Amino acid sequence: MKLQGKVALVTGGAKRVGRSIAMTLAQRGAKIAIHYNSSRKDALLLRDEIESSYGRDAEIFGADLSKPGDVRRLSDAVLKYFDSVHVLINSASVYHKDQFGKTDSDSWDETMAVNLRAPFLLGQSLGLEMKKAGEGKIINIVDWAAKRPYVDYLPYCVSKAGLLCLNTALAKALAPEVQVNAVLPGPVLLPESMNSKQREAVRSATLLKRLGSPDDVARAVLFLIEDSDFVTGAELTVDGGRLIA
After folding, report:
1. Does residue 29 sit in helix, strand or coil?
2. At what angle do helices 118-133 and 68-82 cross, to 10 degrees?
3. Which one of 65, 213, 223, 224 is at 20 to 30 Å from 238 when CA atoms are compared?
4. Please, are residues 57 and 31 in contact by the beta-carbon 8 Å criterion?
5. How far apart are the C-alpha atoms of 100 and 222, rounded to whole Å?
6. ∠ CA 186-187-192 to the nearest 5 degrees?
7. Range of the domain at 39
8. The predicted structure's pLDDT at residue 99
9. Would you tell me how many other CB atoms lie within 10 Å of the CB of residue 24?
10. Domain containing residue 171: CATH number
């Protein structure tokens, strides 16, 4: 699928990896639906940058993905504004540190709702619209920790492991018209709270002995959209070799 003139919804598109993905797709000619939750100011700035830099139509859509009603309204609003959606990027995510033994049900429920239920609901509603239209791409942004869980991030890692299963299930449910694939980033954006010693430990743990960038993830997403019409249900790891180190 070529992105020129297509409509792409990027959840969590206002900041970090989502922002890089939105900019990359806009550069390739896509119209961008920018989802945000609390980052309205960042979303507005990104919309203006996309329109001024690339002349692409872009609009912002606020929604709390932990609430099913908001997810439904997001889907409806994007379809109403753009008339169609050709690409869905499930990038929004919550990333809470939850010490095992002290994790409460509220943290678990929010993590599962945003990281797993929302991609399912959007994949179902927009995926069926794509299938009806005869083409579409869904890219799920997962994490290498879905396969090797981090310490003290159990709900997050379990939600991402579930997203890998959802990736396969959606690929089966929406074939052959829609291709569904996953990108598994590694250390591309480290928490600001990390000190230099911790950052160096993360860097040295990769086979390539360096950290990645949001652009590395965005280029992987672009490949899965524009250069891989014979790929579905796949998992593309972008982690500098951290998973196999």
Report:
1. coil
2. 30
3. 65
4. yes
5. 37
6. 145
7. 7-238
8. 84
9. 21
10. 3.40.50.720
Q: Enter the tokens of residue 195.
A: 């000190």
| CA 171 – CA 179 distance, rounded (Å) | 6
pLDDT given at position 194:
87
Q: Edge-to-edge, what's the strand order for the sheet holding 87-90?
A: 58-62, 31-36, 7-10, 87-90, 136-141, 178-185, 235-238
Q: How many residues does the chain have?
A: 245
Assess if residue 49 is contained within a domain. yes
**Is residue 52 included in any domain, yes or no?**
yes
pTM over 0.90: yes
Would you say residue 244 lies in a domain? Answer: no
Scanning the chain, the segments in alpha helix (DSSP H) are: 16-27, 40-54, 68-82, 105-112, 118-133, 154-174, 196-204, 214-226
Cα-Cα-Cα-Cα torsion 163, 76, 94, 200, nearest 10 degrees, comes to 80
Q: How far apart are CA 174 and CA 136, in angstroms?
A: 9
Cis before 149? omega within 30: no
> Is 245 contained in some domain?
no
Any residues with CB less than 8 A from the CB of 45 and at least 6 apart, and which? none
Q: How many domains, the chain?
A: 1
Question: Tens digit of pLDDT for each residue in 103-135?
Answer: 899 999 999 999 999 999 999 999 999 999 999
Which residues of the chain fall short of a pLDDT of 50? none
- For 55, the token pair is 């002349």
Contact of 61 with 74, CB cutoff 8 Å: yes
Q: Residue 126: which residues within 8 A CB-CB, separation 6 or more? A: 9, 75, 78, 79, 85, 88, 136, 138
The DSSP bridge partners found for residue 184 are 237
For residue 177, what are its two tokens? 């018209």
